[in-house]
Amino acid sequence: MSQLALFGGVGETLLMVVEVLVFALGIYVILRFLMETRGTGVVRGLSLILLSGIFVFLILIRTLELRRLELVFQSLANIAVLGLIVVFQPEIRRAIVQLGESPIFGRLLKRETKTIQRLLRSVARLSKEKIGALIAVERQASLSSMIESGITIDAELNSYLIESIFYPGGALHDGAIIIRDERIVAASCLLPLSQNPDLDKRLGTRHRAALGITEETDAFAIVVSEETGKVSAAFQGKLYFDLTLDKLEDIMETAMHQRSGAGAAA
Q1: Res 144 pLDDT > 80
Q2: Domain ranges in the chain?
Q3: Tell me, what's the pLDDT at 259?
Q4: How far is the C-alpha of 134 from the C-alpha of 127, rounded, in Å?
Q5: pLDDT at residue 37 above 80?
Q6: Is the CATH code 3.40.50.1000 the one for domain 113-257?
Q7: How far apart are CA 4 and CA 213, in angstroms?
Q8: Cβ contacts of residue 4 below 8 Å, gap of 6+?
Q9: DSSP letters for 193-254
Q10: Cα 76 from chain centre
């Protein structure tokens, strides 16, 4: 009987430790989130008052067994929680949006991507104006080493921004831009050149770099020729030449959604 009581006591202690840890973790996450909001001074003061009040009231209520005061305190606590939700509604909404857009949930939930359509718009205009461009899209394998070789941009993917980066004479028009999770993370990046001896010797640096990055990683790359305005793409170590926008879209769909049916390689 004493052994059962001992095991029961240990179990209760473990449960209490788990509850305390979960409670402490919840408080830490909430306070860290609140401290990152715009009104940090107000948040610190409000948090200190609330925590101090809760601590003092709980001690008094539990020690003196003030049942009526406990009911009043519970009602006020519910009202305070609703008040905090109203006050910090913009910050809470922004946090939820950031959580939904995080890479972890993006991979799990397979949300619709705007990358393809925005890239198609930019490539169409670049091709029409005969503006040379090299675009690499990160997939599963990290391109961090190539990103470090360029200039950090970290901007939302935008077709007009891509055009301005590659505009002739611009400070960042040489090299590649790298796209990750619908963001332009860096420009003027150096990509590894393909060493394939069977490549046409007339191919320029952009085409060799596009092929090189897809030989070493699972990235997808797009090239716009400065001389002809023709569009090429590289994927899985293959180079696809003189693509229409429809054909480019098909290859991008294959590359980004793992569907079959990419165009014939040159």
Answers
A1: yes
A2: 2-107, 113-257
A3: 39
A4: 12
A5: no
A6: no
A7: 65
A8: none
A9: PP--TTS-TT--HHHHHHHHHHHHSS-EEEEE-TTT--EEEEETTEEE-S--HHHHHHHHHH
A10: 39
